[in-house]
Amino acid sequence: MREKTIEQKLVNTVKSYGGIAPKFVSPGFGGMPDRLVLLPNGKVGFVEVKAPGKEPRPLQVARHELLRRLGFKVFVLDNPEQIGGILDAIRTT
Fold it and tell me: Model-level pTM greater than 0.85?
């Protein structure tokens, strides 16, 4: 399964939860996660989408750690079966 397919399933599932998952672009600050997940009631999380079995690059890992230190939820998604669990974790923060 391709990364793009997994990413589209994430976007569609977030929409079904009443939220949005805009593409996150950060010029001049590389390594940020692919999607910003915004759910009802002010719930926020970041999702890095990867093809199955692929790992984040070192810069991405560093950005994920930075965001986590700041108190944000950050997830790496490489299987569409993970989507429900990720969204549940964001909703319960």
Answer: yes
